[in-house]
Amino acid sequence: MKIDKIRLHHFRNYKDLSLDFHPNLNIFLGQNAQGKTNLLESIYFLALTRSHRTSHDKELISWEEKELSVSGLVSKQNTTVPLEVRLNRKGREAYVNRLKEARLADYIGQLNLIMFAPEDLELIKGSPAVRRRFLDMEIGQIRPVYLYDSLRYNRALKERNAYLKFDEDKIDLNFLSVLDNQLIAHGEKIMAERENFIKNLEYYAQSIHQKLTHGKENLTISYQRKVQEDFLKEVEGRHRLDIMRHQTSIGPHRDDLLFFVNGINVADFGSQGQQRTVALSIKLAEIDLIHAETGDYPILLLDDVMSELDNSRQLDLLETSLDKTQTFITTTTLEHLQHLPEQLSVFHVDDGNVEVENQV
């Protein structure tokens, strides 16, 4: 899978920009705050209809404008597909082959990508919410029905929590049981998809991690389910607790992931180097996992991470990715980049102006 070209209209600091991309490696080069990450963000937005940096959509629209659009031409499995995402005050609209999709969930998966940024270290040592968001975004790319189940589950959860805020003497346990069943119907599907995804992710990540550590470390991933056996029985057993706390205390919205290196919880006891290597292993494993699930390799976005890696890890990253994926890198200098291929495109970014500096 590759993105051949992209056009930004009123996206961040780009009023109107069109770029043609190299099929293998593209480097966005420039000083900080010039718009390099905005370019990666636009590719992310085209793939997933949202930003990885903000939950406030209006921040994506250029100053004093009312709407934006990002469109691109994507090649996959011997076909070329025009994609477009529009954002205005009414919300987001997604188009495939210039036809509007009825639901955004039906659009996700048209362009698969993996992003690796310095903040991805939070996947290992951050809050459980960060890891749940990781699961939702990554599973949603390869199984769009997961996004539908997540949406329905969150609606049921919101309705149940709103009902639990009533005074205790006004809560009807029979009606609460109806809300339980709505929650469980979609929650069980979410947990099953997550378990399957983690099992497959661990399979690919283990071999990659052993290579990165020269066989010295074994990586395992544990899905921490709050629901252990019977979802219905467990949620009914917590009625009293939920009524007292005015919120739903069990379900996939409480789940988490733990990462272990040689049996040790790397978030609590691992070094920063180990945590960084685990995060890298996870991202590289996703490349093979998405290929196994969809038949196409995803696009790889590297936002200012090469300077964080030593030469051996840079080599491991590029060797693992460049023969499989179209890769986009942001950087302030080329000096620390090692092992680059001869064929690539370099885009110089200066205050929202982009010029192709070198294309081989």
Draw up the topology in text:
Elements: E1 2-11, E2 14-20, E3 25-29, H1 36-48, E4 68-76, E5 79-88, E6 91-96, E7 99-100, H2 104-107, E8 113-116, H3 122-125, H4 128-142, H5 144-164, H6 173-212, E9 219-224, H7 231-236, H8 239-245, E10 256-261, E11 264-265, H9 266-269, H10 272-294, E12 299-303, H11 311-321, E13 327-331, E14 345-350, E15 353-359
Parallel strand pairs: 3-13, 3-14, 8-12, 12-13
Antiparallel strand pairs: 1-2, 1-4, 4-5, 5-6, 6-7, 9-10, 10-11, 14-15
Short synopsis of the structure:
The chain is α/β, with parallel strands linked by helices and about 350 residues long. The chain has eleven helices and 15 strands. The protein has a domain at about 1-110 and about 295-360: P-loop containing nucleotide triphosphate hydrolases (Rossmann fold, 3-Layer(aba) Sandwich).
Please give the share of residues in helix.
40-55%
**Oligomer type:** single chain
List low-confidence stretches: none
Measured on Cα atoms, how large is the radius of gyration? 22 Å
Counting DSSP E segments of at least 2 residues, the number of strands comes to: 15
CATH topology of the domain at 1-112 and 296-360: Rossmann fold
Instruction: Give the spatial strand order of the biggest sheet.
Output: 2-1-4-5-6-7
Give the overall shape: globular
Please summarize the sheet with the most strands.
6 strands, antiparallel
Mean pLDDT: 91
Q: Kindly, what is the distance between the CA atoms of the first and last residues, rounded to a whole number of angstroms?
A: 20 Å
- Please tally the helical runs, counting DSSP H or I stretches of 4 or more residues: 11
